[in-house]
Amino acid sequence: MPSVWTKQDSGPVTAMTAYLLKRLAIAFATLVLASMVVFAVLEIIPGDPARLMLGMNASADQVELLRNQMGLNAPLALRYLHWAGGLLSLDFGRSYTYSVPVIDLVRERVVVSLPLALIALALSTLIAIPVGLFSAGRHGRAGDTIAMGAAQLGVAVPNFWFALMLIYLFAVWLRLVPAGGFPGWGAGIWPALKALVLPAIALALPQAAILARVTRSALIEVLNEDYIRTARAKGLPYRAVLWRHALRNAMIPVLTILGLQFAFLLAGTIIIENVFYLPGLGRLVFQAITQRDLIVVESVVMLLVAAVIAVNLLVDLSYAVVDPRLRSRP
Amino acid sequence: MTLRLDMPEENLASILGKAFGNRSFLAGFAITALVAAVALVSFLWTPYDVTRLVIADKTQAPSLAHWFGTDHFGRDILSMIMVGARNSIAVALVAVGIGVGIGVPLGAFAAARGGLVDEALMRLNDLVFAFPALLSAIMITAIFGPGAVNAIIAIGIFNIPVFARVARAGALAIWQREFILAARAAGKGKTLITLEHVLPNIVTLLLVQGTIQFALGILAEAGLSYVGLGTQPPMPSWGRMLFDAQTRMVVAPWMAIFPGMAIVITVLGLNLLGDGIADILDPRSRRRR
Question: Is pTM beyond 0.95 here?
């Protein structure tokens, strides 16, 4: 008897551990491959960073000296290892154009971009889940049609155009919030948040529209299941069924999309930060690209890619939390 | 003559009948046809010449002479939107073509071979998905130079894993069916089965994904042009028009409103069309009704 119990007990745990280890290994391998791709792409770009730093009037000797100092003449594999090792210890090197450590630039910027992306993600979720619940509960009726029509429209709106319209309405016309710029968190929480409100809404609404559609269709799928009918038959009120049984079972596709949306939001900040002149990571990487500040470009790109991989890993893991069935599956 | 066991059970007439009863499909088809027609007409005629700058007419509000107003160079916004439609459609269409042309064979191959080949291709997919598409598109166009062609390549590259994934998932399901077993029993090879039986059966899936990627491509092109990395002036593009509008919002809001609406309407039409096609052809949604 005891052996049966231990077997049953350890089974799910080892399966879960194996699942976790496999996801971790895949995430790490993806990260390593991604770093190679980023390194290789920036390697083949025309233009010598040393020449760029010294200007066109520098002599060939001066350029050569700087190239040696910057380690640009070392063998390719060695440079990659040096760079990748630096990334792991958060030593990204020095920016060519700003002449400061890249990590300092990142630290300054991330306090703008991360709150922005998180506020947008929270806004998107807070709008999308209730709308999805509302629509699924009224499947096929007028409320559903109107809500999904609005979602269909929301999906089609480019966030930067939506941003321009928001600026026109709330900053130019109503003068409620600033049209752009960021006072810094030192100016106080409220002024800083005020500067992030419009960008966050611009980022969030198109994503909310996508998420609402996914939530609705996942819920409708679940609401057709037998156990929902059973729950209704045993006398549970519709609202309780929707929240307690349906929403929880519909979470897997919703979580998947949420994970993907984080990547979209991070990328979206590049354009949105340019619309609102926000000094964030997106604006930093965009300016670095145009100024050919490759060290900054590769560092920020790697950070964003690592963030995407980490979030996708979190999503994979949260499946197991949301859905106990997955825990026992090999 | 081989027996075609994989023929859809419905004939064209019943599919058309369903299409006419589907509001989403009808609306999407009408809007998409309108946008395509506008783009085609722009080759032959536009209200004004988009290359002629008339500074005397700059930033005029919408009027009977200029329905959507004029921009800071006195160019007619309506004419520019018409020519921009041509540009948006071309970029997005070729980008979808790249995705289908490379992604579908890869996905079908992975499904047919299975094992290590499949695993390797899927991990490669994960790799591409780890890069936020817009970020990489900006990098690619910044590195290889801004312009419509590089924008097409940048957007197209990110369509490849999308179509590979859809084709693989669709093909894997088809490979489980009995008629595949029959074809294998008849001695057909994997390539032939893929060409004759698998691909025809995943066309609808690809069509639906195609409209979605087409719409995303239009949004991506607008985004790239907006940050100055897509289509270059003097060729009008919707994204570039919005960039020009940004600093003139206070004096000439119409410069921002109309190009943005053109993007919204086009993308909306394509998404409705995709939803409609999925509804009509998906047996699951048919049962649900």
Answer: no
